[in-house]
Amino acid sequence: MPEKTNCRLVMGLFWGDEGKAKAVDVLGENADIVARYGGGANAGHTVCFEGEKFVFHQVPTGLLREGVIGALGAGMVLDLPELVREIKELGTRGLETTSRILISPRAQLVTSLHKRIEKIREKTQGIGTTLRGIGPTYTDKYSRYGLRLGQLLKKEGLSDCVKRLIESHRAFFEAAGEPTPTEDDILGPLMETKPMLANLVGDVSTFLTEAIRSGKNVIIEGAQGSMLDVDWGTYPYVTSSSTAFSGVSSGLGIDPRLVGEVVGMVKAFTTRVGGGPLPTEVFGEEAEKLRGTGENEWDEFGSTTGRPRRCGWLDGFALAVNCRRWGINRLFMTKLDVLDGIKEIRLCSAYKIDGKVRRDYPSIVEELARVEPVYEELAGWDDGVFCAESFDKLPENARYYIKRIEQVAGCPVGWVSTGPDRVNTIVR
Q1: pLDDT number for residue 350
Q2: How far apart are CA 240 and CA 137, in angstroms?
Q3: 3-state secondary structure of 300
Q4: 310-312 and 330-334: which strand pairing?
Q5: Chain segment 134-163, per-residue pLDDT in tens
Q6: What separation in angstroms does the CA of 12 have from each of 21, 87, 150, 159, 184?
Q7: How many other C-beta atoms are found inside a 10 Å radius of the C-beta of residue 358?
Q8: From the centroid of its chain, how far is CA 328?
């Protein structure tokens, strides 16, 4: 068994948007490497630092700190034109990253074909995707029609592979009354990225394994949340990858025992974007209070899509299930300050279906849609959380809320975010 390491996984425990970017930024103070293991440009990781807003999609959030190296693993699906655009945009803001990125040649490539497929399907299926082509790319990966970054660079068999990809979808486009993409449509945008990206490709698996075993500080940055995991999420309203701890080993090619600590992200209330059940969802004034108006950077509107998020009280039952499933060591709680001024706060501590308390989490969405949340009603507080500097300075009722969450989750809260900036974080 590997000894205790300085490798820490940060993963969301709900439907994404839990504040992983801020956590990675805060925890990355002494980091040497930050690695992504899944997803792609559908991620929108927002960090506020010294009054500036940075939104990361494919570049790991940790690169906001100087000297940190970012690794993009084989489990990712990369939109190369968007990746180049993101790198260049960061450069214009004084954040040079081209010398600090290592990309696995095994990563799959999102193409214009995949984006068009997703756009057509979303019109009829209404899953609530980001229209970034993520799902169709993962589908082709497992159907063995996909394109890999390494193949694009080497060119061997590339044309034949693209032709197979096109033929596998020709009937779909014809049935939809849409023109079938050509080889030039697919390869043209990808080939334009080679001059910048060719020198950034290398063996992520070996690099990370050697770094962790040598004692370097490594943060693994999850994307989306575990309730969007293709196996353990609210299927079919999920993403197309393993977003939870289960995706780390395959996505990065490392021994999972090298992960020394698992940090679970939890917001002080629950949100999700798109379709699918949300058992603790609220509406009207309650929802507006939690969501905000959109005037502030931290309001509940998607950083990738701009869509307003659905909001509800904290689902403690789902939290407890995911803490158990993924071996969470400590929780990082965000947006406690949003609850300032709410007189009564609800915490869901159990589920009922047909009047009976559930012991397990429903496996099908039809059953989840019938859930009756069992709420505990807790006294709120007028204000005092926003920008509080220590746990003792939080309002008494806010401290009790945190302690009650720890009891329900069976896991300690190690960090509490009290505002949008890096410095607005209480370390317990």
Answers
A1: 97
A2: 9
A3: coil
A4: unpaired
A5: 989 999 999 999 999 999 998 788 999 999
A6: 10, 25, 30, 39, 38
A7: 17
A8: 16
**Which residues make Cβ contacts (< 8 Å) with residue 186, sequence separation at least 6?**
111, 112, 113, 162, 165, 166
Q: Report d(CA 280, CA 421) in Å as an integer.
A: 28
DSSP-based three-state secondary structure for 38 = coil
Q: How far apart are CA 17 and CA 309, in angstroms?
A: 9
Task: Collapse the DSSP code of 302 into the 3-class scheme (helix H, G, I; strand E, B; otherwise coil) and give the result.
Answer: coil
3-state DSSP assignment of residue 10: strand
Q: Report which of 198, 199, 170, 193 is spatially closest to residue 183, judged by C-alpha positions.
A: 170
The β-bridge partners of 235 are: none
What are the helix and strand counts (H, E) for the chain? 14, 19
Beta strands in 81-213, from DSSP E residues, in sequence order: 101-103, 108-109
Strand pairing report for 101-103 and 69-72: parallel
- Residue in the structure block whose two tokens are 């965000």: 334
13 has pLDDT over 90: yes
Q: List, in order of start, the domains of the chain with CATH numbers.
A: 7-104+201-263 (3.40.440.10), 108-195 (1.10.300.10), 266-427 (3.90.170.10)
Return the active site residues. 17, 45
Mean pLDDT of 347-375: 96
**How far is it, in rounded angstroms, from Cα 238 to Cα 243?**
10
Decide: helix, strand or coil at residue 143. Answer: helix
- Which segments of 175-302 are extended strands (E)? 218-221, 261-267, 270-272
pLDDT in tens, 289-324: 999 877 777 788 876 677 899 999 999 999 999 999
- Is 101:80 a contact under the CB 8 Å cutoff? no
Which two structure tokens, joined as six digits, stand for 185?
A: 């449509």
Q: Three-state SS for 186?
A: helix
Q: Please report, in angstroms and rounded to a whole number, the separation of the first and last CA atoms in the chain.
A: 30
Other beta carbons within 10 Å of 209: 17
Q: What is the pLDDT of residue 128?
A: 63
